């Protein structure tokens, strides 16, 4: 299958029609290139705050509620686009107030399939900014989604930097990593995490990024990154593990062809079998003593 991952810029929206036109153009462009799985970035929904007015968008607390309030309409749009274009879409995440979880918002990507399926995967571990400034909280547990394109999981941005989270979704053949990073070092932290999860899980990881400045909202005002698709550096994959990468801070889709049979083959008969041998760490993974030499 062909996968498309976005380097996505945020824009101030004058109307719902503007937003619909923008998202449909992005989806249509990827579908025309033959992509079947589309990944938008973390906090890709923050531009929706501008529909509530510039004052709301500029308010660090009010903008969270504004995005959450309009998310049902966004989900209906994404579901329609998934059906219309015959693609699986992981929509740009946004803050969602879910009373079943907390009085504070979670950071929630959502997955849509052409057959009408929808699933959500909340971010698990918050960054310092999310904790200290946004007061966003970790949401529902990790899941692996069985789709017509294979088994898919989502590790949102910072989540990709934690190997035990990657191990929790080891049944996934494709791990989506939507990200939002302010500076180049942040981008590389997430990219290194995504590549490490591909190595350990002997799977494909797909990273998307917000790019450019967005002064209308304080929570996504400056963004650095690019799209990337990674696999294990083993037989059937590039020696570097890099299937595709975009151009830094340049909006657009990055594409790669992914073969699920290659993932199966490397898991069963790779040059190394890290996913299988993971369990051999048990008993060796306690806190090592300090030995004076």
Keywords:
31% helix; 13-stranded mixed β-sheet; Nitrilase/N-carbamoyl-D-aminoacid amidohydrolase; 8 helices; 24% strand
Map the helices and strands:
Elements: E1 2-9, H1 16-32, E2 35-39, H2 54-58, H3 62-85, E3 88-96, E4 106-112, E5 118-120, H4 128-134, E6 145-147, E7 150-154, H5 163-168, E8 174-179, H6 184-201, E9 204-213, E10 222-223, E11 228-230, E12 242-245, E13 252-257, H7 260-269, H8 274-277
Parallel strand pairs: 1-2, 1-9, 2-3, 7-8, 8-9
Antiparallel strand pairs: 1-13, 3-4, 4-5, 6-7, 9-10, 9-11, 11-12
Structural write-up:
The protein has helices spanning 16-32, 54-58, 62-85, 128-134, 163-168, 184-201, 260-269, 274-277; strands spanning 2-9, 35-39, 88-96, 106-112, 118-120, 145-147, 150-154, 174-179, 204-213, 222-223, 228-230, 242-245, 252-257. The chain has 293 residues and is α/β, with parallel strands linked by helices. It is globular, with a radius of gyration of 19 Å.
CATH architecture: 4-Layer Sandwich
Helix content: 25-40%
Q: Give the topology string: H per helix, E per strand.
A: EHEHHEEEHEEHEHEEEEEHH
Largest sheet: number of strands, sense, barrel closure? 13 strands, mixed
Give the number of DSSP strands. 13
Number of helices: 8
Overall number of structural domains? 1
Termini, distance in Å?
A: 54 Å
Which of globular, elongated, flat, extended, rod-shaped describes the shape? globular
Given this structure, which CATH class is correct? Alpha Beta
Strand content: 15-25%
Secondary structure class reads alpha/beta
User: What does the radius of gyration come to?
Assistant: 19 Å
Please identify which CATH superfamily we are dealing with: Carbon-nitrogen hydrolase
Mean pLDDT across every amino acid position: 97
Low-confidence stretches: none
CATH topology: Nitrilase/N-carbamoyl-D-aminoacid amidohydrolase
């Amino acid at each position: 299958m062909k996968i498309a991952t976005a380097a996505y810029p945020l824009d101030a929206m004058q109307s719902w029609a503007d937003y619909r036109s923008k998202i449909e153009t992005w989806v249509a462009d990827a579908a025309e290139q033959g992509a079947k799985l589309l990944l938008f970035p973390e906090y890709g929904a923050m531009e929706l705050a501008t529909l509530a007015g510039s004052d709301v968008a500029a308010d660090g607390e009010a903008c969270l509620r504004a995005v959450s309030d309009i998310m049902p309409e966004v989900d209906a749009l994404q579901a329609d686009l998934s059906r219309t274009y015959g693609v699986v879409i992981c929509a740009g995440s946004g803050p969602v107030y879910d009373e079943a979880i907390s009085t504070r918002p979670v950071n929630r990507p959502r997955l849509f399939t052409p057959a009408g399926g929808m699933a959500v995967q909340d971010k698990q571990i918050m960054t310092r900014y999310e904790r200290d400034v946004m007061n966003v909280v970790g949401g529902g547990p990790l899941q692996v989604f069985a789709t017509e394109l294979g088994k898919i999981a989502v590790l949102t941005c910072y989540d990709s930097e934690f190997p035990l989270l990657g191990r929790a979704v080891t049944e996934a053949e494709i791990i989506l990593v939507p990200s939002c990073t302010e500076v180049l070092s942040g981008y590389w932290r997430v990219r290194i995490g995504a590549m490490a999860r591909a190595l350990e899980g002997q799977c494909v990881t797909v990273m998307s990024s917000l790019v450019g400045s967005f002064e209308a909202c304080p929570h996504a005002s400056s963004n650095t990154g690019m799209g990337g698709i990674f696999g294990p550096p083993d037989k059937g994959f590039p020696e570097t593990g890099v299937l595709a990468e975009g151009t830094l801070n340049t909006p657009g889709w990055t594409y790669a062809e992914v073969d699920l049979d290659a993932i199966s083959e490397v898991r069963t008969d790779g040059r190394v079998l890290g996913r299988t041998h993971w369990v051999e760490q048990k008993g060796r993974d306690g806190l090592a003593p300090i030995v004076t030499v």
